Amino acid sequence: MMTRQVWRLQRRPRGDIADGDLEFVEETVPEIAEGQVHVRVLYLSLDPTNRIWMSDMEQYMPPVGLGEPMRGGIVGRVVKSRNPAFAEGELVAGLGAWTDLLVSDGAGLQHMPELPGISIPQAFGTFGVVGPTAYFGLLEIGQPKPGETLVVSAAAGGVGQIVGQIGKLKGCRVIGIAGGAEKCRYVVEELGFDAAIDYKAEDVGAALDRLAPEGVDINFEQVGGPIMSAVLGRMKLFGRVPLCGLISTYNATDLVEEPGRWTLILMRRLTIRGFIVTDFAPRMGECLQALAGWMLEGKVKTRQDIRPGLDRADEWVKLLYSGGNFGKLLVQVSPE
Amino acid sequence: MMTRQVWRLQRRPRGDIADGDLEFVEETVPEIAEGQVHVRVLYLSLDPTNRIWMSDMEQYMPPVGLGEPMRGGIVGRVVKSRNPAFAEGELVAGLGAWTDLLVSDGAGLQHMPELPGISIPQAFGTFGVVGPTAYFGLLEIGQPKPGETLVVSAAAGGVGQIVGQIGKLKGCRVIGIAGGAEKCRYVVEELGFDAAIDYKAEDVGAALDRLAPEGVDINFEQVGGPIMSAVLGRMKLFGRVPLCGLISTYNATDLVEEPGRWTLILMRRLTIRGFIVTDFAPRMGECLQALAGWMLEGKVKTRQDIRPGLDRADEWVKLLYSGGNFGKLLVQVSPE
């Protein structure tokens, strides 16, 4: 009898994720059935949206059911297959669960190419979700033009670091917003952003007035709350807002949204557009080719924040909401 | 010595327009200077944006200066010209002032063709501002597709009536929101909307649940406030919101905007885009050709609400904010 470890959602969090909301269990795995694959999970992706899936708020997929394995992005190796689409030993990635052994019918899993010069966590932590999110959100919705000013919040996070670098490739002046001097230093010195604002140390609005006195053309929005409001108030005419996330609100017990900026949107003729990366699924090939090319040429660098131990995933996921991660947050579940 | 009548802005309104905010004066007109035209104004267009121009809120043009003639759209005949671009007797339209005799250097005035079968107030009240606003807002931002559900607020007003009819031409199911049984009857029976909601007599949200249980694809937004909120809450995935106006807020003494719907915009991947008709100025020819064609074929009808007397313009303009007009509001300033 094989066993596996898995996190199951036992209770919907009220506010911050609390002990007992998720339960870590060891359980036996039934014999593999026709059409199934067993995947040894190497890395688990932790993403802001995890908190949304734990809740029953309005969302873009069904929430995780109570008692069900917690949903998450994974990369791993097929260790057993009774599904002709997957060979044993193959590297696969996709939507799975917080477990070390994924039992799947293959739906939502794709073969993951192994590229020389790009490690598994780097490839998974770039091409899996955050790279395409940055790519489509910035290029399709943001419509960056040379000389424009792009602001990206959560700039040292998984998506933000890529948004800023693509913005630079497109000729934009890029200002990142991040928490702490080290992250700010990183996005400017290592990634080539033009400037960074440490929201923990300075007033974001005042910093924008200094760094972008003419205003902001594109606000790649990931956080919501007062940081979003500070940027929105400084948008230029015909500005664009790819609305990618609202992480500051995900742990709210009673959702109090920032005031509408309807008059501002009207008078400055802004475009606000919400999106989820899967909206662009039919164009994924184009995106992955561009991202891989930029990475191999050294034009886009990505940083992963790899934490050890599936049994601590409930602790690591909270880093996302406190700003404790630095780069794309992954959990190493099994040794490569 | 010639004289003219003119409304001058004496004080910025606080809340509703009050006596003394605008002053009606008779004044002498200096001899025409080189480059100028004198235009006998036939009709003055009164539009929701007039209240914005009276204020010093953030807006898309400079506000009207205190002591200056009140700005407004006009159509009239050139009675004197020392500008080679304009011939005496010619019909012109454009941005002018609340006056019976416009003194202009020609900037913002265009020659207006006289079309057989379309009266001057009908042409001016359709092609001047409201037609292009409806055309570009719906077609460019709304992106209507056959079978989609389109909701338009202020449905019996200048813009709304045209939006709904173009929506029908594009194969949409069109629901108008208007105040009073007569306007609702009009948009359904005379203009061919599929349904209308009388916001003075029924709860807009409940009516939408009944009339559009699947939700709304396009919300052509003109009013803001609780009516906007009712529609936004019922948007479908990938819905579009051409944000054309927020008339319910223009008389507010302290701007309290509707709550942001940031989570909704994100999860349903809505597009919200503010616009002003002049944003589409380079494409005006295409629009006027399409509108005139539809009108001459009887596919688009427009209704004007023509009130007599320039001296009562301050009274007529208030109809816009109380919902007292029925069709595009014009003032007959001089006999044709």
Quick summary:
Helices cover 27% and strands 27% of the residues of chain A.
CATH class of the largest domain in chain A: Alpha Beta
- Average predicted confidence as pLDDT of chain A: 95
Total helices of chain A: the number is 11
The helix/strand order of chain A is EEEHEEEEHHEHEHEHEHEHEHEHHE
Please identify, by name, the CATH architecture of the largest domain in chain A: 3-Layer(aba) Sandwich
Could you characterize what this model shows?
The structure is a homodimer of 336-residue chains. Chain A is α/β, with parallel strands linked by helices. The first copy, chain A, folds into 2 domains: 2-112 and 303-332, Alpha-Beta Complex (Quinone Oxidoreductase, Chain A, domain 1), CATH 3.90.180; 130-279, NAD(P)-binding Rossmann-like Domain (Rossmann fold, 3-Layer(aba) Sandwich). In chain A, 27% of the residues lie in helices and 27% in strands. Chain A contains 11 helices and 15 strands. In chain A, the strands form 3 sheets. In chain A, strands 3, 4, 5, 6, 7, 14 and 15 form a 7-stranded mixed sheet that branches. In chain A, strands 10-9-8-11-12-13 form a 6-stranded parallel sheet, sandwiched between helices. In chain A, strands 1-2 form a two-stranded antiparallel sheet. In chain A, strand 9 (173-178), helix 5 (181-190) and strand 10 form a beta-alpha-beta unit. The A-B interface holds A 57-60, 224, 228, 238, 243-246, 249, 255, 257-276, 279 and B 57-60, 224, 228, 238, 243-246, 249, 255, 257-276, 279. Strand 13 (271-274) of chain A pairs antiparallel with strand 13 (271-274) of chain B, so a sheet runs across the interface.
